[in-house]
Amino acid sequence: MKRKPAVTSREVAELAGVSQSAVSRCFSPKASISEKTRRKVLKAAKELGYRPNSIARSLITRSSRTIALVLSTLDNMFYPLAVEKASLRFQAEDYHLLLFVVPEDGDFAGVMDRILQSQVDGILMMSALLTSSLAEECVETGVPVVLLNRNVAFEGVSQVYSDNYHGGFWAGSYLAMGGHQRAAFVSGLESSSTSRRRHQGFVDGLASHGLTCHAVVHGNYDFEQARQATRELFAMSPRPDAIFVASDHMAVAVLETLRHELGLRVPEDVSVIGFDDTPVSAWPSYRLTTVRQPVDQMIEEATTLLLKQIREEAVVAEHRVLPVTPILRATARRPVAASVD
Amino acid sequence: MKRKPAVTSREVAELAGVSQSAVSRCFSPKASISEKTRRKVLKAAKELGYRPNSIARSLITRSSRTIALVLSTLDNMFYPLAVEKASLRFQAEDYHLLLFVVPEDGDFAGVMDRILQSQVDGILMMSALLTSSLAEECVETGVPVVLLNRNVAFEGVSQVYSDNYHGGFWAGSYLAMGGHQRAAFVSGLESSSTSRRRHQGFVDGLASHGLTCHAVVHGNYDFEQARQATRELFAMSPRPDAIFVASDHMAVAVLETLRHELGLRVPEDVSVIGFDDTPVSAWPSYRLTTVRQPVDQMIEEATTLLLKQIREEAVVAEHRVLPVTPILRATARRPVAASVD
DNA sequence: GCACAAAATGAATACGTTTGCAAAACAGGC
DNA sequence: GCCTGTTTTGCAAACGTATTCATTTTGTGC
């Protein structure tokens, strides 16, 4: 099977007996064209199997109708679901997604360079580490950017994330009210703002009941590292009696390790609270008590914000923080008499 | 912040005091350019913040260096991992991935149209339903396509998948040798070749030990539907004593339902075998006996094949079927005396 | 310094569209 | 049929790059 040379609007024009402009106008929604020539053109187009070349179109319209989606890993189910939703949303608006996976330790600046070269109309970054300088560079080039689920100390770029601080605060006070004395924290990436905010909220939540954080170990949002972190936690003495984990993905690792490796009962021996509320967390084997992030809403806000910035000439950065919902399930001991809010 | 007009090679040329061609040559790896002018150009480029416009480049080179990745859902972890690997692989070859998510019941032909319009250099379809006519259309237009993990009754398009039949066959004979009498099958999408091949192998595997398939229910590769299918299975009488499930994603749903809803023990009351070997399957809570698909190898083969077809003028379709590995864990009763191979 | 090959350069063209502009076709009212 | 106002149409100029070809510059061995 040999490659056919692509058929152009000129060839269609010739066959239909009209000018090339007429053909072009047939494929532009708002252009002015008579019904008669439209029929002629569409007939010829179909006969030749013509499809407008979107590269050429992009060149002249200076818009690729493409969004760069950058993320660092897909092994936490939170992200695949977010990607799927974002994809559907953008497709509905006739935008395409260009996927960039950049490992946490990868050459982020290099990827950034390629993104900018690829002439995308906008950038949606999911939990990618964006240094302030890189963020500035984006803004300099004038490409709209929105950061999802991660923030950066630079006002100039739009960000949507959920209320990590209060999620952490709730976890801290809920565990305190459940009568726990030694609540520990399994962090995500130390460099991530999300993990830091959750941690801070957690510490403050405990403090509001006169407690301090018993220990902190680093799970780096990774399943295996979270297991290892759990082992370290329980090699300490005294052992924690509760754990707040920076993501459900890691929380499951913690649960598995607690139950099947350390032989502990949850929540009788240890309480566990996660963050995200991924589908796994609701499975009967886990029934994880957690803090729900409103994924749908986050994606909706982020895409809407990005599309808005693309359409408008002047880009003005906005920050949106979405509320979080405690999901009471079976892995954290419930406070006996008091109500929590 | 206002949008800056993009800086072009011509402006760089002017600043550097050279021709536009010289600038272009500086950014083409193999072009002939003196060290002296290269320095001048790069200096000017950096000063102006110039980046070659890949749209214009694509137009002239007739290659977008972009691959369409089409899939229907990301909620089975098999796919996110595959996507991540594919992405890394293509990025390393300086190709970009354009993501197309098309729901199982979505307008596939419409998406296909957009893919073709977007001038991708190749298409990688993961488990998407491609009708023969659509496949032919692809081949007609001359865009290289490779189907991953799904095949279609059309020789003209390249396909890589694993040995579904023998995976199913092994499951059937392993369950038979384990002394099960009433082994049932939870299918994936009925229209999918993978599910059908696994089913066929399973039936033949049972038959090789003189057994027949006790029942078939449809899970459509969906978690909830798999739960429902399990309920149906156990509403029947007599109940099955073993289940082969067309994917691990569904197998976990089956396990959850069996244990926590029907109060059955696995493998004492019922044995369960899955397919894929996703990370979840190895978690201590499940320890799912399953048939491993060599994801890494599948992606490697598929990407290599696609890149090869892109580079070569004439496209010749190839089929690659990769071997599958039984993973013996804890959800299926082991045969007592005999060895299986 | 010279002859010659090799390397580097610039002018010009092409890629396949969209779109402003002016000419042409059309419709309606007399 | 003529004048006016509105569509419809074709021409031609972009968009920003890669690349061919002819020309100029550089390098090498004497």
UniProtKB/TrEMBL annotation, chains A, B:
The lineage of its organism: Bacteria, Pseudomonadati, Pseudomonadota, Gammaproteobacteria, Oceanospirillales. It holds the Pfam family LacI. It comes from the Bacteria. Residues 7-61 form the HTH lacI-type domain. Coiled coil: none annotated. PANTHER family: LACI-RELATED TRANSCRIPTIONAL REPRESSOR, RIBOSE OPERON REPRESSOR. Gene3D superfamilies: 3.40.50.2300, lambda repressor-like DNA-binding domains. Keywords: DNA-binding, Repressor, Transcription, Transcription regulation. This is Substrate-binding domain-containing protein. InterPro entries: HTH_LacI, LacI/GalR-like_sensor, Lambda_DNA-bd_dom_sf, Peripla_BP_I. PROSITE patterns: HTH_LACI_2 (PS50932).
